[in-house]
Amino acid sequence: MHELSLCQGIVRIIETQAKQHGFSAVRKVRLDIGALACVEQDALSFGFTAATKGTVAEGAELAFIVSPGHAWCPACSQRVEVKTRLDSCSTCGAWLMPLPGGDEIKVKDLEVD
Amino acid sequence: MCGVCGCSSESAHRHDEAKHKRLIEVEQNLLADNNTYAARNRILFGRRGIFALNLVSSPGSGKTTLLVQTIKNLGDAFPIAVIEGDQSTDLDAERIRATGVEALQINTGRACHLDAQAISQALGGLRLPESGALFIENVGNLVCPASFDLGEAHKVVVLSVTEGDDKPLKYPDMFHAADLMIINKVDLLPYVSFDVQRCIDYARRVNPDIEVKQLSATTSEGMEPWLAWVRAGVLRAALQRPNNATKYHYVSA
Question: To 10 degrees, what angle do helices B32-48 and B116-124 make?
Fold first, then answer.
């Protein structure tokens, strides 16, 4: 359940932004999550509700934008999109070589009042 | 779109904060705080010539036994310190201290992993193993510790043959994050249906670069390649230490 720690990270980011931009309430938090990131969306949502209690982000909606990961197919010699680290090539079925990235977890933007 | 409030109006208009919601671009990594502490730890390790390893596994893979045996073999060669992470008790730190090496126990309470800030704090309470090795034994958990950089040189994943050879596929994030996989308890291979080659194939599927060592910490079978790997890492860290000439005290074991 490291998602709770991650949500505490979200709260810290929001509080810093609140000081910089001077807002008092957050309506929506959009996260950008790589498909290969080691997180569970349901656990994040659960942790978010707990971590934001009593903060400017209490009651805010948590939305996810999932961006795909990529891997290299040695058989087709091309870069393919993947959803998990175990995906095979969708064209030829070969095992894929992992490529860096696809595991980022970022706060993309905040909708605030 | 209005750059101030994000509404669709192109012409100049008043901004009534109460009516207008604003969109603030953030683009910040959730792990930014952790990664800052990790970077600081890494700088400290670099300056003091410390080869830091983050040992991860499921509970019961034999991490502590491996550490005890490693210390018995290398403890005379260079300074060693250990940070132990467990939910509760300092039983593991006690086992390490019994070897004469300094060990600091972090009890994570409800948390399922060590983070870089906890390590940073622990380093303040530890005699640093300068030009030596720091072993960080993470909480027994093959999921959460994968995401948290502690500032280590390498994550080392320990897998015992009693666990099943398909672990790398079941917990791909951890095997992807690790640089070395230790297959432990190989003395028990005759009694379990663990296919070593299949396990290695699975691990290389999620991480083609992962190194593999097979050993038994209990019988010492296969320990030497692991010890040599640690020695080489310590030597590298000590030699890369800035102005190291006088402080370098590596003794060949």
Answer: 40
Sign of the C-alpha dihedral computed for residues A25, B115, B126 and B79 taken in this order:
negative
Which DSSP string corresponds to A16-35? Answer: HHHHHHT-S-EEEEEEEEET
Domain total in chain A: 1
B108 touching A (Cβ < 8 Å): no
CA distance A110 to chain B (A): 5
Predicted confidence (pLDDT) per residue in A25-59, tens digit? 999 999 999 999 988 899 999 999 999 999 999 99
B245 interface with A at CB cutoff 8 Å: no
Closest in A5, A9, A85 to B206, CB measured: A85
Q: Are strands A78-82 and B211-214 parallel, antiparallel or unpaired?
A: unpaired
ipTM over 0.90: no
- pTM for the whole structure: 0.86
Please tell me the class of the B33-240 domain. Answer: alpha beta
Q: Is B138 on the interface with A (CB under 8 A)?
A: no
